[in-house]
Design brief:
Layout: E1 7-10, H1 14-26, E2 34-37, H2 42-52, E3 55-56, H3 60-66, E4 69-72, H4 79-86, E5 95-98, H5 105-112, E6 118-122, E7 132-138, H6 144-155, E8 158-162, H7 168-176, H8 178-195, H9 200-221, H10 225-232, H11 238-248, H12 251-280
Parallel strand pairs: 1-2, 1-4, 2-3, 4-5, 5-6, 7-8
Antiparallel strand pairs: 6-7
Helix pairs in contact: 7-12, 8-9
Bound molecules: 1,4-dihydronicotinamide adenine dinucleotide and (2S)-3,4-dihydro-2H-pyrrole-2-carboxylic acid (A1CAB).
Length: about 280
């Protein structure tokens, strides 16, 4: 279903590059089938063309009119100006995928003034290594085939979960932002290893293999994390001593608050952007 489809990215930043890298490495999408536009940064477009062989475009209207799939990948704050640029070019038989945090599908449908199929997606940057966790929901005018195409695109780059739109902000707070939490944990572990006397160049491989090994154990054994944790935790041993310290800092509570705050921020972004737009009209 994906072979021969053409893609147009509006916004050529981090998530665009992660998706381009992922899509090309699947072998199903050819560089010539990916067009990309950015706002006033020719250097970035040149880099993407030279490195990935994809096609930079200046004329967004004509690129939007020609693509099978249009992927909105600008910051949420830039959505209205982007929609303005695309109005009149997009047709009802195209698929729009928005990866924007906080932006509801209805805003895009109404902004384009068209009964156009929109899929709101929340992938993460691990698209680049085909290990994204992506949440998807369908807009008002999206049929099962169109949702299926979006799911296929992201399934090529990892795991896909289809849910109600009301849950997309929570997906953003959990797995959209999630890689950053994990990288932050890795940073903290590396520094902690150094603090305990292990040179940084040795701490890093120890931490990375611990991370990958634990993820693989979770995936391959199918055991719940608490069971695997208990297998490491000897009574009155070293792990218990370490976990007691984490509990003193309310580790689980901190993580819960982080995901909740990121979820709220996603909702807030959508609300603020709509309010600002209404105030300007
Ligand atoms: N970075 C991440 O890990 C993830 C980001 N997202 C979402 O993806 C979107 C983009 O995020 P990033 O790639 O990190 O941002 P970024 O700032 O790296 O890239 C956005 C790009 O869009 C361009 N842009 C803005 N308005 C435009 C327009 N009208 N036409 C063409 N290009 C335009 C900007 O010049 C910029 O280069 C955001 O809405 C974010 O919520 C979603 C999942 C993960
Ligand atoms: O930080 C952000 O707003 C975006 C959305 C999910 C990941 N990065």
């Amino acid at each position: 279903m994906l072979e021969g489809k053409t893609f147009f990215f509006v916004g050529a930043g981090n998530i665009c590059e992660s998706m381009v890298k992922g899509l090309l490495s699947t072998g199903t999408v050819r560089p010539g089938d990916i067009r990309v536009s950015n706002r006033s940064n020719q250097e970035r477009l040149n880099f993407l063309r030279n490195y990935y062989g994809i096609v930079p475009v200046d004329n967004k209207k004509s690129a939007a009119g020609e693509a099978d799939v249009i992927i909105l990948a600008m910051k949420p704050q830039d959505i209205y100006s982007a929609l303005q640029e695309l109005t009149g070019a997009v047709k009802e038989n195209q698929l729009i995928i928005s990866v924007l945090a906080g932006i509801p599908t209805s805003l895009i449908e109404d902004g384009l003034g068209l009964a156009v199929p929109v899929v709101r997606a929340m992938p993460n940057t691990s698209c680049a290594v085909l290990e994204s966790a992506t949440g998807l929901c369908a807009g008002r005018y999206t049929n099962q085939d169109q949702l299926g195409l979006a799911a296929e695109i992201f399934r090529k780059m990892g795991e896909v979960v289809i849910l109600e739109e009301t849950l997309l902000d929570a997906v953003t707070g959990l797995s959209g932002s999630g890689p950053a939490y994990i990288y932050y944990l890795v940073e903290a572990l590396e520094k902690a290893g150094e603090n305990a006397g292990i040179p940084r160049e040795l701490a890093r491989p120890l931490v990375l293999k611990t991370l990958v090994g634990a993820a693989k154990m979770l995936l391959e054994t199918g055991e719940p994390p608490e069971v695997l944790r208990q297998q490491v935790t000897s009574p009155n041993g070293t792990t218990m001593a370490g976990i007691n310290e984490l509990n003193k800092g309310n580790f689980q509570g901190v993580i819960r608050r982080a995901v909740l705050r990121a979820t709220q921020r996603s909702r807030e972004l959508g609300r603020i952007i709509v309010e600002k737009q209404c105030a300007q009209q």
